[in-house]
Amino acid sequence: MPSVRDLGLGAAPDTPAAGERVAQARLASFLAGRALGCCRNLSSPLTAEDGCSRLSEHLAFGTLSLRTVHQATEAAIHATSHRELACSLRGFAGRLRWHCHFMQKLEDEPAIEWRNFARTADGLRPGDGSELSALCREHLQAWCEGHTGFPLVDACMRQPVATGWLNFRMRAMLVSFAAHHHLWLHWREPGLHLARQFLDFEPGIHWSQMQMQSGTTGINTLRIYSPAKQAADQDPQGLYLRRWVPEFGTAAYPQPIVDERVALAAAKERLYGLRKNPQAQGEANAIQHKHGSRTSGLPPSGTRPTRRSRAVDAGVDDGQGQLF
Fold first, then answer.
1. How far apart are CA 101 and CA 112, in angstroms?
2. Residue 193 to residue 174: CA distance in whole angstroms
3. Sign of the torsion angle spanned by Cα atoms 164, 170, 175, 181
4. What would the pLDDT profile of 13-24 be if each residue is shown by its tens digit?
5. What is the pTM of this model?
């Protein structure tokens, strides 16, 4: 097979090994001990690279099924006598449930790939029913290329281009930067760019998260990330930054493309003003009813199946087949 370079597509990304054997080995190492502290490790781009399961690419491509991962995780929880490891695995099992929850949103409402969950948010930002101005296009291009003048944002934009992966908190920060107080862009164009970068792109998760982090679901907490605070919290010694933005601190590194303080004030006024709108509040109730979490009906991770749940799994019950 020709290589990426042979096809004239540029330098080959630093992608992980593929295939079922690799996927099974990665799952086994995670359950055997690499999962320890994973719920803490997933926040920092430094610790997440090895501290997360790193199974998302395999779930997206199908070299591992979610059922396989879930059942192996439950078995590992029962088998281990290490309390902290069991706790970490329970947290991981909860994230598997959220994986399915977000995929189900797109199944229930496919239109969320291109329009807002909350229609009261329509037209809120440039790019949502309107053309982007030349300045907005410049800002979008700078964000895509990792040349915004905000060091952690630029580092996080460059990593998925090179590797196809980035940890969850940093993904959320990138979307927050594009959608909220920095660039004030509709989520669709930034979402398309990120979708092309991530090896673990899963449409249901991706578009739901783009809208959640942009504040257009109408029901989720508005999260506006400060790149400076995230850098201080997650990369205090600048190790990650120096890896991906080696020109930082030199004349080659650009100045910030927006005034953060001014942009933040304007974004908060618009976003929180929208949430106070009675029409938006009424719409939020309907969205919550259709798309809100149903975790209250699921057994806790590590719970042994009851006689009834075993009967349901065996197909005796008239209800839907069970995954968990």
1. 14
2. 12
3. negative
4. 677 888 999 999
5. 0.85
